[in-house]
User: Fold this.
Amino acid sequence: MSAAGVQPRDWTCPFCSLLCDGLALAPGPVLQLRGGDCARARAGLAAFDHPAAAVSCVDGVPRGLDAALDAAAARLGVAHLPLFGGLATDVQGMRALYRLANVRGAILDHAHGEAMMPALRMLQDRGQMFTTLAEIRNRADLIVCIGTDARSSHPEFFRRCAPAAGREAGGRVVFLGAGGGTPGAAEIPWASTVDALCAEGDIFDTVATLAALVDSRRLAAVPAALAELADAMRAARYCVLVWEPARLAQHGALVGEALLRLLMNLNRKTRAGAFTLGGNDGAQTANAAMSWLSGLPLRSRVGQQGVDHDPLQYATARLLDERAVDLLLWVASFTPDLPPPPAALPRIVLGHPALAAGCAQPGTVFIPVATPGINADGHLLRADSVVSLPLHGVRDDGLATVAEVAQALVARLASGAAAKEGAR
Amino acid sequence: MTTIRLKGGRVYDPANGVDGEVRDIGIRDGRIVALHAQDKVDAEYDLTGCVVMAGGIDLHTHIGGGKVNLARMMLPEDHRLNRPRDSLLELASNGCCTPGTLETGYRYAQMGYTAAFEPAMLASNARQAHMEMGDTPILDHGAYVMLGNEELFLEMLARGEDPQRIRDYVGWAIGASKAMGVKVVNPGGISAFKFNQRKLDVDEDHVHWQVTPRQVVHSLARALSELGVPHPLHIHASNLGVAGNIESTLATIDALEGLPGHLTHIQFHSYGREGPKKFSSAARQLVERVNAAPNVSIDVGQIIFGQTVTASGDTMRQFANAELGNPRKYVGGDIECDAGCGVVPFRYREQSYVNALQWAIGLEIFLLMDDPWRVVLTTDHPNGGPFTSYPHLIKLLMDKRFRDEQLARLHPDVAAMADLREIRRELSLYEIAIMTRAAPARLLGLTDRGQLGIGAAADIAVYREEADREAMFATPEYVFKDGLLVARKGRIEAVPVGGTHFVEADYDPAIEKTVEAWADRHASISYRHMKIGTDELCSCSNGGALLACKVHGRGRPL
Ligand code: SF4
Ligand SMILES: [Zn+2]
Ligand SMILES: [Zn+2]
Ligand SMILES: [Zn+2]
Assistant:
């Protein structure tokens, strides 16, 4: 962990998967954001105001880090099948957690695993056609946000899509089936027009109709606005479809497939791509690192038998409900907004210091950890899963990183195993 | 200080002209040393009946970066089987055409390879590529940054920028991404596809920038030559996979005007338009041209029958082939005004005329080239087939009878007509050692790898001599990485973190102003984050050795 020497414009924000950079953060007991004014970032930073000395805790009793690591290792050492959940960490954290998962076997899922599954299933069944922020800035002449206002979860999204300097006109922005309260022209100043269409109604029906229209199929009784949008998409030089699987619940995979069909069609004659909003709290990073290390994405079990991927079975809620696992190791290093799920099984929590209060029961080991971008360096992948950025700590709060904690646990489990073998 | 003697093996070390002599090899602290018979050693291996070569070097294999990872996520069916582990040192990881990085490292090492190079690193995805390579154990690695489709470069070319400035920009891009070389993919074509252009011939204008692939290739090759980057421009030429593309391939060679260039996965670019199916082998035309052009080297990109996946930056061609996907899936992306990616799963079938001919063309190229130093053994993993099929490929090249048996199983028109039937050549162990280690090392400027001379790194593969070359090359007896025994009869014995090879070239830093100005106008990240510093590389690549190769203009590596 290192925290010194961050250049003034060098800060990367870890509080959503857009990873806005080129910001400044004035260090000190209260961290102040400069060069941007994102409410989500400010809320994230506020959780680090006036840090008190964070202490580890075993069964509600404050303990030193070593004692907490001993307790955690002992509990992991007797678990038959632990679940590594949360996984709100960076690349180094995932690397070390993967090694730890391999020591005795574990299932890995992210806190946003459920929200990630539609996009993953779409990828596994059909594929995807994506675009990235710089392409949007430089090319998009039509942005259609489907079932999302984008800014609730990713406040700076439209600023990040602002046309590159020198482009004559900004593109048109359309919200489709996104409910009320979507941003207007005043909030997307660069846009030539901002419309909200079909705000209510079933999102899957809306997307299916749009896909049919883009495919030039004749349909009876189509809303004129939708027909016009389909024409506009075909006429656009570069159309971007923005969607947010987390908002679509069980419809997600179907909507995703309809969008992909639509995109493949559009791309026969013109150009278009999708931008998927998701992957906050390190979800994009955890999934990518898991995939490259093991060959399979999250919701996989690893161990001596190899890797087994089961997106339905290896879901946190289901595993806990069915008591299919006997220990939960929960990682939440970015915000206090991802507390571990209550569970009757032993828990080890590597968490934001502010999670301590909720992790003081018997059966729970709590170890406060550093946050990449605040009091540790690190790396995260952006929502598009292409760009990864370095995060710079601006303060040293004396906290261990997730990677350091996981490495310490690996070392303890390895020496424990060695001692046992030696005794035989 | 560890000293090891490898005793009595038959040594094939083409870089030093050693062709099958029985001799001892000494190792001390990771390097090859001269040992006297009476010198004390910590370990001695009796290599009677064994063949000794430097560790294999794969100079073109897609092992790390966004598109490879998308391919992994996209193909869970490639990961259903878990190979039983016989070593507790191996962490869980699996896959065949899209293996996890851990599995990639284990399997390469088990096969006697000690270095692998990712050929298509996007500048905008370079950190991730280095992370994935850093998580590929045992192997040293490096990557070629993809240039020639990023809008900044095309803009510079379009406004007729001074070649010196282009050179400085290329030097900057190599340094910023910590690359070992530069690859150009469908020169200008990935960008053109973003402007909805569907085809781009060597002398055709990019619809927006009005520059041609010929200009792109020439200016990049010139820049690398002036910077003194050892690896020639790595060229994935125009019109990949298109019948008749031999014309654009030969035009691309012309575009070099004698400058060094490496044409990669050349099999996919050596197609004629003859015969009833309007698809024919142009291997002879290609080889005739390459044999006469000493500035040109190639790797083959041999196809292997069975399931694989094609992952390429060439979005223009991948989108055109999306319908051929098997299973039918497609991933495509336009990336950061920089490049793109297209992933299409594919199954090469023996009974397909086109696939059978592709197979024959690849082998013809290997066997017709008269200078083995300019042809490198690759399958363009995973695009032609997984790297684990190298032992099979070696057997095809070394064993005419085996080759004929395979040919007889193919589509009848190919089995009956292919030129390959007439080619009697069987490659020798010496030639295999050139194509799999000595030549790639030389083409990369790795002076102390790919050879077994005194002072070289002790990356060594020891194979038990067997008539069945596939069995022989699949499971070496011993594999040493920097003098450490890493695999023994297929069992992993140690898992060191590999090192990162990268080039540090001199360029005029004034170019940074141009890049910064472009980034301020067009990019989605801060200019500062477009550069990977050396410390950051160390953390991305997982703490492995940083193997910087410093070059000073037109010169040789120091
Ligand atoms: S949009 Fe996301 S990354 Fe950008 S400043 Fe807000 S919270 Fe941070
Ligand atoms: Zn920085
Ligand atoms: Zn290529
Ligand atoms: Zn390739």
